[in-house]
């Protein structure tokens, strides 16, 4: 199996269809094939087809979904593009380091590389769904980077990682279980917030960053399927005893 086939480019809320076509062309240049489009403003569109040039087959295979959750549901590593500093720091790598890690894992599971809107990138909520953030260190004199250009840079680094396969060493290659996919991770976070609210740990007037920091903690640890199952079992048990103490569910 070619690891490049497990690498997915995800464009979120793309405004200009020409950027979709240019992205498809950049992908095909570097041997990438899996393109997901999250609620594009205009698609299909002639501009996309024209800008794709000879990469029309990538456009034809593209999957259009309505939410980012759908686009990353089966991906065990999600890397989000970020152009600015965040209130809460997140694991941040430059394009080369991020792509080396992404390619190293792509031999074992699907990996998504997510790019945001032309005018404002990805939201904080969307970035919190990613285990890693990727940053292209452009010149401070003019740091704005077109989304298709950003994809081209990342696609190139993925290609270089592919050509240097013999030098790649994945320390998790012999891990006994698969990493949890995006859908299972998101269900865990929903369960975690629910349980913490029932316990009284989360207050209505508490800082909203608590959940964001917990997301960062668990995303940084890269949970596998068994670990997610164990954690959800702990949450279920805690909810049982909290509800019992409150008399919830009694006759």
Strand runs, count: 7
The number of helical runs is 10
- Helix and strand composition category: alpha/beta
Order of helices and strands: EHEHHEHEEHEHEHHHH
Major sheet: arrangement of strands: 3-2-1-6-4-7-5
CATH second-level architecture of the largest domain: 3-Layer(aba) Sandwich
> Percentage of helical residues?
40-55%
What name is given to the CATH topology of the largest domain?
Answer: Alpha/beta knot
**CATH superfamily membership of the largest domain:** SPOUT methyltransferase, trefoil knot domain
Roughly what is the average pLDDT, rounded to an integer? 92
Strand content: 5-15%
In short:
This protein is of the alpha/beta class and 251 residues long. It folds into 2 domains: 3-167, Alpha/beta knot, CATH 3.40.1280; 182-246, Helicase, Ruva Protein, domain 3 (Orthogonal Bundle).
Q: Could you characterize what this model shows?
A:
The protein has 251 residues and is an alpha/beta fold. The chain has 2 domains: 3-167, SPOUT methyltransferase, trefoil knot domain (Alpha/beta knot, 3-Layer(aba) Sandwich), CATH 3.40.1280; 182-246, Helicase, Ruva Protein, domain 3 (Orthogonal Bundle), CATH 1.10.8.590. It has helices at 17-29, 46-52, 56-61, 68-72, 95-105, 124-127, 147-163, 182-199, 209-221, 225-246, and strands at residues 7-12, 34-38, 63-65, 77-81, 92-94, 111-115, 132-135. A 7-stranded parallel sheet has the order 3-2-1-6-4-7-5. Strand 1, helix 1 (17-29) and strand 2 form a beta-alpha-beta unit.
């Amino acid at each position: 199996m070619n690891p490049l086939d497990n690498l997915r480019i995800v464009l979120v809320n793309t405004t200009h269809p020409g950027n979709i076509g240019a992205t498809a062309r950049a992908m095909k240049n570097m041997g990438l094939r899996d393109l997901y489009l999250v609620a594009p403003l205009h698609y299909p569109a002639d501009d996309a087809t024209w800008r794709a040039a000879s990469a029309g087959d990538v456009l034809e295979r593209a999957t259009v979904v309505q939410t980012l959750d759908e686009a990353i549901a089966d991906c065990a590593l999600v890397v989000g593009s970020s152009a600015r500093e965040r209130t809460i720091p997140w694991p941040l790598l430059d394009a080369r380091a991020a792509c080396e890690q992404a390619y190293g894992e792509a031999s074992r599971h699907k990996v998504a590389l997510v790019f945001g809107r032309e005018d404002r990138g990805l939201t904080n909520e969307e970035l919190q769904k990613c285990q890693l953030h990727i940053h292209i260190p452009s010149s401070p004199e003019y740091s704005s980077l077109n989304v298709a250009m950003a994809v081209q840079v990342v696609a190139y680094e993925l290609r270089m990682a592919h050509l240097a396969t013999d030098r790649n060493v994945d320390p998790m290659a012999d891990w006994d279980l698969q990493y949890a996919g995006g859908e299972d991770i998101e269900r865990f976070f929903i369960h975690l917030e629910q349980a913490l609210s029932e316990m009284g740990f989360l207050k209505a007037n508490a800082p909203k960053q608590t959940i964001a920091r917990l997301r960062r903690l668990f995303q940084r640890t890269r949970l596998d399927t068994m670990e997610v199952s164990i954690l959800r079992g702990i949450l279920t048990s805690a909810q049982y005893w909290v509800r019992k103490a409150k008399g919830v569910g009694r006759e």
